[in-house]
Automatic annotation (TrEMBL):
Name of the protein in its database record: Schlafen AlbA-2 domain-containing protein
Lineage: Bacteria, Bacillati, Actinomycetota, Actinomycetes, Micromonosporales
InterPro entries: RecG_C_sf, Schlafen_AlbA_2_dom, Schlafen_AlbA_2_dom_sf
Taxonomic superkingdom: Bacteria
Domain Schlafen AlbA-2 stretches: 26-133
Any one Pfam family match given in the protein's UniProt record, by short name: SLFN_AlbA_2
Gene3D superfamilies noted in UniProt: 3.30.565.60, Schlafen, AAA domain (3.30.950.30)
GO molecular function: DNA-binding transcription factor activity
Length: 573
């Protein structure tokens, strides 16, 4: 990091008023802080980050400098070497405002080598993770998940000793074997049913007995919850946008269900329950208006199957359920266990690379009929891409994916992205004909999003990076989008007029304040909803709201700290 980059980083910290997810500042005037290893471990187990030694956060990020930068560099390097695996940090010293500042750039550790921990105290006591502007100790379950990711889990093919072959549905097994023998060639025609089911990991031996595997029980069991009561799915429909807020009749839930049975039945029943709590609405599709469900059924099926197939089935996770939460403004599906293998959140939907901790379960469902003739899953790594396309065709925003090690969450916003207001705005731009993906991206950027090539593909369902680059370049050439940064870190955002709103302060807004203000221009919004809409942390949103309120650009509707309080843009006049 050079002096100019450091100056920009320092200016951002001062504007933000605190450390953040990818930067930790230490005064370090009296020497190396005792907790420095925690920040190094935390950044390594997350997205990486910068550690700055010689800046005092409590004094408004004043540069205090360090006394012996060479010795401090050596000490930081020694701490990095004490971690397992060792951290290959970039450590350097720059002179700023006449003082020495030590900078340490921490790279993220590959997923299959985490958790990065202090070797002397082991992974359970010595692993940290970055959360907002602080470092948190990983829970025992999170450590277990990360350690399991270093090898191929086999929980789905583990025997269920308490179950017997008679606990499986014979009709479902017969349909499964017919398809296998029709599609897999002669190898399964030459063996009997029991031998075939062992080869397919539906059955396995437990001593002298043939018993179902966990995967076989979950797919073909008459009632799998007899043996694993918590391996089911819960559906809760809330009356308000936050859990715990009562509805207008004092109700806590609109629906609260626990859905049991094998995987195909749970998926079908969950969709039925969701439809019972969904509205049908009009969607603009070209020049036509059609009535559709709030969430396309194809999208629901894909998301539910993913949650049940890719969840963690280790012993420590079998007490946790797949959770489905429906709010008026969004649908949330959460499963135990984060992403497995080399897959990253940013690549979901843009790559056909797939990695599953439950390979045998996935393989069985590939040949298991769903009921309408389709198979439960296709196992080609294109399911999320198809989900994005279906949402785009319905004119809806793409989902938000969150990987938190111990859980994976997909959240679907419940509103049409290309509504009449958005289409009117697009028409007013007087642009050449746009693709559906360009229209979607423009409206997202209008709502405050700053896109990269990767997030453009994730948001629109465009598969090819070169296609995304071409479509973004067309928007830049048309003068409606501005490009910033260089290759590898290029960002795109909609060109906005420089004239501030009537009555607004002429002071320059920070990027976070711009994002929050753009989200509020759509409708009055709660602070929690602003966090979801902008992707900013709680502290970042609060700081931005304080700055906007001081400039008299926003106001609070309701009592402070009330769950029902909303933030709104101050209207001219």
């Amino acid at each position: 990091m050079d002096e100019r980059s450091f100056s920009e980083l320092l200016a951002g910290l001062r504007a933000h008023g605190a450390d953040h997810f990818t930067c930790e500042v230490k005064r370090a005037k009296g020497g190396i802080p005792a907790t420095l290893w925690e920040s190094i471990s935390a950044f390594s187990n997350a997205a990486g980050g910068d550690i700055v030694l010689g800046v005092d956060e409590k004094s408004g990020f004043v540069v205090t400098g360090v006394d012996d930068p060479a010795a401090m560099e050596a000490q930081v390097g020694a701490i990095c070497a004490e971690l397992e695996p060792p951290v290959r940090a970039e450590i350097s010293t720059i002179r700023f405002e006449g003082k020495a500042v030590v900078l340490c750039v921490i790279p993220p550790i590959p997923r299959d080598q985490r958790p990065c921990h202090r070797r002397s105290i082991g992974p359970h006591a010595g692993s940290r993770i970055r959360v907002a502007d602080g470092d948190r100790r990983l829970t025992d379950y999170e450590v277990a998940v990360l350690l399991a990711n270093r090898s191929e889990p086999r929980y789905d093919v583990a025997p269920v000793p308490a179950a017997a072959v008679d606990d499986l549905d014979s009709d479902l097994l017969a349909a499964f074997l017919r398809r296998i023998r029709d599609t897999k060639g002669d190898i399964f025609r030459r063996v009997d049913d029991h031998r075939a089911l062992v080869m397919l990991n539906v059955l396995t031996r437990d001593g002298e007995r043939l018993v179902p595997t966990l995967a076989g029980l979950l797919v073909f069991g008459l009632y799998p919850q007899s043996f694993e009561p918590q391996l089911d799915l819960t559906v809760v429909a809330y009356p308000a946008t936050e859990a715990g807020v009562l509805g207008k009749f004092g109700e806590r839930f609109i629906e609260n269900r626990s859905i049991d049975g094998p995987v195909p039945l749970m998926v079908a029943e969950c969709i039925r329950v969701l439809k019972r709590n969904m509205r049908r609405r009009s969607i603009v599709s070209g020049i036509f208006r059609v009535d559709e469900w709030e969430y396309p059924e194809e999208v629901l099926r894909e998301a539910l199957v993913n949650a049940l197939v890719h969840r963690d089935y280790s012993e420590s996770a079998r007490g946790m359920q797949v959770q489905v939460e429906m709010y008026p403004d969004r649908l949330v599906i959460r499963n135990p266990g984060g992403l497995y293998g080399p897959v990253e959140v940013g690549s979901l939907g843009t790559s056909t690379v797939t990695s599953s901790r439950n390979r045998s379960l996935l393989k069985i469902l590939e040949d298991t009929p769903y009921g309408d003739g389709q198979m439960v899953c296709e196992n080609r790594g294109t399911g999320i891409a198809r989900m994005l396309v279906a949402l785009g065709e319905a004119g809806m925003e793409p989902p938000r994916f969150t990987d938190e090690i111990s859980s994976f969450t997909v959240e679907f916003p419940n509103h049409t992205l290309l509504d009449e207001d958005a289409l009117a705005w697009l028409t007013s731009l007087d642009l050449p004909p746009l693709t559906r993906s360009q229209m979607t991206a423009l409206v997202l950027m209008r709502n405050g999003a700053i896109l990269t090539n990767s997030s453009y593909r994730t948001s629109t369902g465009v598969r090819d990076s070169r296609t995304a680059t071409r479509e973004l370049k067309e928007l830049v050439d048309a003068g409606v989008v501005e490009q910033a940064g260089t290759r590898g870190s290029t960002t795109y955002q909609v060109v906005r007029p420089e004239v501030p709103p009537t009555g607004a302060s002429h002071e320059r807004l920070s990027p976070n304040e711009h994002q929050v203000l753009a989200a509020l221009r759509i409708e009055p919004t709660s602070r929690a909803a602003l966090e979801r809409a902008t992707g900013l942390s709680k502290d970042q949103v609060q700081h931005a709201l304080q700055g906007l309120r001081q400039r008299e650009l926003v106001t609070l509707l309701g009592k402070p700290r009330s769950r029902t309080a909303l933030w709104s843009v101050v209207q001219p006049g």
